[in-house]
Amino acid sequence: MAEVVGFSSMDELVEATVPKPIKRGPMSLPGKFHEGLTESQMIDHMKYLAAKNKIAKSYIGMGYYNTIVPPVILRNIMENPGWYTQYTPYQAEIAQGRLESLLNYQTMIAELTGLPMSNASLLDEGTAAAEAMGMCLNIGSRKRPKFLIASNCHPQTIDVCVTRADGLGMTASIVDPDKFEFSKDVCGVLVQYPATDGSITDYASLISSAHANGVKVVVATDLLALTCLKPPGEIGADMAVGSAQRFGVPLGYGGPHAAFLATSQEYKRMMPGRIIGVSVDSNGKPALRMALQTREQHIRRDKATSNICTAQALLANMSAMYAVYHGPEGLKAIADRVHGLATVFSEGVKKLGYQVGSDPFFDTVKVSASNASSLAETAAKEGINLRVLDANTVTVAFDETITLEDVDNLFKVFAKGKRVNFTAESLAPSAGSSLPKEMVRESAYLTHPIFNSYHSEHELLRYLHRIQAKDLSLVHSMIPLGSCTMKLNATVEMMPVTFPEFANIHPFAPLDQTGGYQEMFKNLGDFLCEITGFDSVSLQPNAGAAGEYTGLMVIRAYQKAKGEGHRNVCIIPVSAHGTNPASAAMCGMKIVSIGTDANGNVDIAELKQAAEANKDNLSALMVTYPSTHGVYEDGIDDICDIIHKNGGQVYMDGANMNAQVGLTSPGFIGADVCHLNLHKTFCIPHGGGGPGMGPIGVKKHLTPFLPSHPVVSTGGIPPSSEKAQPLGTISAAPWGSALILPISYTYIAMMGSEGLTSASKLAILNANYMAKRLENHYRILFRGKNGTCAHEFIVDLRAFKATANIEPEDVAKRLIDYGFHAPTMSWPVHGTLMIEPTESESKAELDRFCDAMISIREEIRAIENGTCNAADNVLKGAPHSASMVLSDKWNKPYSRKLAAYPATWVESSKFWPSTGRVDNVYGDRNLVCTLINGDATPAEERVATA
Amino acid sequence: MAEVVGFSSMDELVEATVPKPIKRGPMSLPGKFHEGLTESQMIDHMKYLAAKNKIAKSYIGMGYYNTIVPPVILRNIMENPGWYTQYTPYQAEIAQGRLESLLNYQTMIAELTGLPMSNASLLDEGTAAAEAMGMCLNIGSRKRPKFLIASNCHPQTIDVCVTRADGLGMTASIVDPDKFEFSKDVCGVLVQYPATDGSITDYASLISSAHANGVKVVVATDLLALTCLKPPGEIGADMAVGSAQRFGVPLGYGGPHAAFLATSQEYKRMMPGRIIGVSVDSNGKPALRMALQTREQHIRRDKATSNICTAQALLANMSAMYAVYHGPEGLKAIADRVHGLATVFSEGVKKLGYQVGSDPFFDTVKVSASNASSLAETAAKEGINLRVLDANTVTVAFDETITLEDVDNLFKVFAKGKRVNFTAESLAPSAGSSLPKEMVRESAYLTHPIFNSYHSEHELLRYLHRIQAKDLSLVHSMIPLGSCTMKLNATVEMMPVTFPEFANIHPFAPLDQTGGYQEMFKNLGDFLCEITGFDSVSLQPNAGAAGEYTGLMVIRAYQKAKGEGHRNVCIIPVSAHGTNPASAAMCGMKIVSIGTDANGNVDIAELKQAAEANKDNLSALMVTYPSTHGVYEDGIDDICDIIHKNGGQVYMDGANMNAQVGLTSPGFIGADVCHLNLHKTFCIPHGGGGPGMGPIGVKKHLTPFLPSHPVVSTGGIPPSSEKAQPLGTISAAPWGSALILPISYTYIAMMGSEGLTSASKLAILNANYMAKRLENHYRILFRGKNGTCAHEFIVDLRAFKATANIEPEDVAKRLIDYGFHAPTMSWPVHGTLMIEPTESESKAELDRFCDAMISIREEIRAIENGTCNAADNVLKGAPHSASMVLSDKWNKPYSRKLAAYPATWVESSKFWPSTGRVDNVYGDRNLVCTLINGDATPAEERVATA
Ligand SMILES: Cc1ncc(COP(=O)(O)O)c(C=O)c1O
Ligand SMILES: Cc1ncc(COP(=O)(O)O)c(C=O)c1O
Ligand SMILES: O=C([O-])O
């Protein structure tokens, strides 16, 4: 392959491609990891770590509950590459399955919260609350900079919001909700329902007074409780946020889980994150796709409603399927049982002489105990985790996994050695609901047939596979998305994720129960430091964009600590990913854009000018390396120098680390901080739009400022040698989505130092090989000095608009007919496709993709030379669903066979798009973002009458 | 639903359906299992059992080796319902994926053994050897009744053959292969290569002399060794047998594993088991299907080449994919490494002063040790299992999981506390191959592109999913196969199968390492006794047919013990499954057929006459209950009486236990022995043609005769109170396919006594509901007294031949267009379909299937009334593949849409058959049963030139 590209070997190609000055010395992972473990050794090592985690019965609650993952969902979604390797559903025609599932999720959230608009997941409950806070600020036109947070919210929610408020330039005050004052500068308030101590308050009148004063109300809430309690929408809330974790997603020591945010129709255009909506396809049939994308960072950049990009699609799907499986009655039965257990426990401890909280509760009982900590320690010895609320109070939170026998064990602990002369079973019959009538939910929910048809395992299994069959994923073909690094997620890397000793750990479990996790964090920290050339990492951010925000906040904290808190200018090249300006905006930064030169490189002269002009206020540069154009810029060390000389810090976007690992490193190049997308470079599968992890690495001077956590204190890994001055809290869980860290950990540990370096080289070789094969057919934009590209390259399609009336979308949709997912479209350059093959694809697969592209080029040529109709041709008609090509009426100027079978390989194995081309505009004009109740084909009627 | 059938409740329907005299009292499973466990409790219980199994490093060998199951195969085949819930590929058009995989398997076996014809798996190595012995008998026209078995074969192989020989009326003698005498009465010999003690002998001259005397030679062999050793075919063997287990299938305490049997073209029509072959479809394109079915029991009955029906398809697929993944070079590298480790070990123990065997070896080293047992015991304490060959000899067998460190641990054990002054690593460089040149393989193998393209995880993953997409399974729709009971295999039941503590246990591990298995066997024995009304069960038979053979052999042993060894008549109704007469034939029985009356019941008068006529020699009756016609025969107790009165024993075929469990039982009815198909009634998935388990239950008087095992002695569970007089050995492993027993075990334990009973009732209700819906459209054959059927029923299609030229096959193939697998076709009554819905299907699914059948009835009516062409219509054209309906030339008298989308549900989710109707006759006339080397589309050319 190297020879095709014009080099005698892969190493020679790499030599010619990576600029000399930035070439690092050989990488050296610690100890046995340097050589790399075999798959069998790896599994043994993960079992060794697993054995160091102790699974206790958790009654901690605080937004995290044990749950029973229905095995049919565990095996057929969570452990199934057909689901977990999907990409975000940008190509709607080959994503109708997960789009339907996410629409189910939105419907579930909307109906349980009583608020009609839900997005398709956020990163966690804490950030969902922070996003809602940001919405309140925007609804108040940024003129009301105060936000009140009820003091009985979860502590991690509070801290995430306070940190976020700081970045946004607003103040968040923690106040007893009874003492809220709705002054003119207050844009919104956050209350929690049920509260962190389990108590339930009727917020109807609080909401009325808030509204009377122009203040918006966000309610953090619990989906299971909402099957019993009047939903936030019915008591007037403007927004509801929370976590869907307890709907069938493992605790995972904190994540990943899907969080939700629902609101009224009024504020839908201000919502953060992805929203799935109903539209129509080219045949006028209903079809789903992502709606209202103009709110998002990839279009609106710093004016976006949020920086969120990768979210928690896979987990949202799991939770939605949990609801589909149990249905409304099943969920209610689970809720009643949980509430019943809490009630039985409450009655029992009262008998034992304890005082319990007087407020109504759903699943969490507050118990006064003279020495709460010692009680909790005794309990822990019995494998029972209680929450110490304060010196004299514990709370005990129940979930669907608890049995009457477990409650008896609780009684034993609370009896402190005394005999218990009753049993949970004996108390059960007389324990009635403690919910006040006026707060009991009366409205129906989940009435759509989808939530009422698949309650047996066979039916759910078939539903899962039916919709999976509509979705193209890595099990079908390469997904060569530039910048997204859709690479192999080896099965062995996925296996520890569902080891119970990793999956069933509460994020706030005592540290002595999480030795395996801690050892893995430490090792992973060491790995990532070695890989990035940094001194410490934080594992808290849950996605790349969250990493960007964290990194900038670290810089900000550092500059503040130095007395340079006024520095607020962030220089960002126009070619940067939309999340960069969106994240900078979240840190209150002023963005100065700079352009690129003809070769796609940052215009260094312009950069220098901008840096010098903003010298006094320069906070940071955000730069991607290799550039988003797929080129190793020669001047990157100069660029870092310029920024440093002008008092700024260099933030490196690590999305392109797949071209750096082992060859160079952000630290070596001169960056001060960078995030890593573990879901790109480090093998966490994309899950159809998340989960991800975006840890950041920093240089020594920044280590004291890494985020901590209010419940479990943490900081850099390894810890800073200086006194910690954490910037605050970024995520609800101390180590973000800890459960998926084993994927990246095992990837690195098995590859070893040399393996990782070879992977980067191979990624470069693959990209250059494809570029070479395609250059005789397409114009390839931007190459480096020696005519090579980095790990990705851009194919220019702009000319075809004039010559053949062909747009990138036509090529993208035509690729579907060939069985491929399109490369990244029109980013970073409009009118182009950006191809990233990664190291994990075979030459055969690269060739197959090139063959498809070349064949499409010939199809375009046929239009150019007049052989084919410019208005009606295989590209404009693409993609062609089965129902289109077997329609009895066929009035296309080309054949059915050419439409559906344009290449030999599709004849033996065809992936059928399930719709014709989806109309984006129609859907945004006729917004429908939930299933329509009682109608199995939601949009059909709307469409008919539209 | 009951009301539709004309009853007020399910119980009333059951009351009216099951004859009063046979109704049993309520079932009562022992202890906590009576109530039934929840899924969570079940998993906890299985973990408790798992913890009682101890995984040791096994060096026992004897045909069972540790292996690394490639995780991509583990997750995407073994744990994937898309693969494991497939049915045997009788409907070839919706089974091309697994047919291709099985063709790969046959190719792998053929090329590694050097014998061109392989079948698609047998039950285990022991029975494969026994089948080969049977072939030798038949090749010798049953006129040479002696068979010689080399004394250095595995002991379990020897015992299985000796037992089988006894049944077949031949004698098998165990002889040192050096002393073989090829007399005129010898039909064949069995040698093992490498032998059980690891030694390798060149059998070329032995084979020549055998052939010179008209004696056939069977070689039991090892696939991994054959990558290095001259294959049996090249040294002249007539047949090769063995196990494919070490190609990526877990030990599983003995099974399930795929065994193989390969032979020359000459004997192909005498082979047992399923054979996949290449044929063409209705478009003249190559297509696969099962070949030479006329050899098999379902057609040839007692004249069949074997009784085998369910085999080991899933495991054959796993092994084939292991070879696809590693490819010829990868396999050779594994073999070289294993051989290298054995050599290093051999050198090392010599240095420690031991004497090792002087013969060449591949992976097993024979070591003289004065007190072999005590050495083995010491080793076991270190977690190392050795094989004690005799008082002064151990053998040490290596496999791909062993490392140099493991070899060092062996040295430590053999050094008995003395210091070892070398390491395995230090010996490795000088340890050369010990194989004599003339025995080294020179021929190539696995040269086809399929074995040389998918060596990366991505490529294999995609290959697996690509072919899976061609196969209809329970993930798509119900598979209503009468008599086959394709029911739900709940995920939670599947999970323990891949717990390492169940998967990684050698079948001959010391009993104190298998406490979990033993406890499960005991409980399962108790469960099955309670369910069947018997006193003891044997878990040894690996499929239903093997159970039949075992049951009849038990009867035979009992009668012999009573001095009635002359009893050899077996009465079998004509409606019996083909395995019944085939099994009886294997026990040397004379079959007397009896007919059925107009209601499908056994003709009692005829039975009585036959029994009385054969009074003196009557051995047994084989009877299925409810009958294969789906009816609870009223006279079953009379039938049992008649047989008993005439000195016979009643063998009940338990295939229809799904209509008995909890309502009646074989023991209660009066049977003496019966087999259970755990892969029907008790939820083991069908795996595309196996694995299965066919344990038998017996009355007290038969318990002493249950099979034992030469290596690990076993017998009935619970054991007989009398002295054991075991009939011999049935399977290679003491408890058959132990690894899949957790499936049935958890099913029973979770259902509890009442749950199991309800399942039977629901199965009856579902069948009656469907029969009711269909009776206005089709003639339903045979119902019981109250107009009800049992758990299955027969739809009569015979009339349509005359009215519309329509055959059952046309209906079966048309069902594919509707997304369904056909019911059982033309059995037990020619010209019919037999439908069994099972309890696990929802009403919605039953209705969908009925809707399809009714719609097809209307399509037939259109032919009957002349609206449609009798020669060219949707039924004759079925199934319609995608490439057919989108062909540019469409000259059918019906529309493309009608062809492919005959029902609303296929419009939203279509399962496409990957070929047109497959031509069976063509393939048998042009037999090709392997991939054609160097040609990716094997049959295309043959077809073109045919
Ligand atoms: C260059 C670049 N930066 C940042 C991101 C944001 O990462 P995430 O989606 O994990 O938030 C992306 C995602 O595609 C990216 O390509
Ligand atoms: C009535 C009957 N008996 C026996 C068998 C043989 O069982 P197995 O395929 O497990 O050998 C079958 C299998 O279909 C059957 O239906
Ligand atoms: O797993 C499936 O690809 O259906």
Describe the structure in your own words.
The structure is a homodimer of 946-residue chains. Chain A is α/β, with parallel strands linked by helices and 946 residues long. Chain A has two domains: 1-62 and 495-751, Type I PLP-dependent aspartate aminotransferase-like (Major domain) (Aspartate Aminotransferase, domain 2, 3-Layer(aba) Sandwich); 66-363 and 398-478, Aspartate Aminotransferase, domain 2. The first copy, chain A, contains 32 helices and 27 strands. In chain A, the strands form six sheets. Chain A has a seven-stranded mixed β-sheet with strand order 2-8-7-6-5-3-4, with helices on both faces. Chain A has a seven-stranded mixed β-sheet with strand order 16-22-21-20-19-17-18, sandwiched between helices. In chain A, α2 (10-17) crosses α24 (741-775). Chain A is globular and about 90 Å long. Mean pLDDT of chain A is 96; it is low at 934-946. Chains A and B meet through α4, α15, α16, α28 and α29 of A and α4, α15, α16, α28 and α29 of B.
Summary, kept brief:
By secondary structure, chain A is α/β, with parallel strands linked by helices. Chain A has 32 helices and 27 strands.
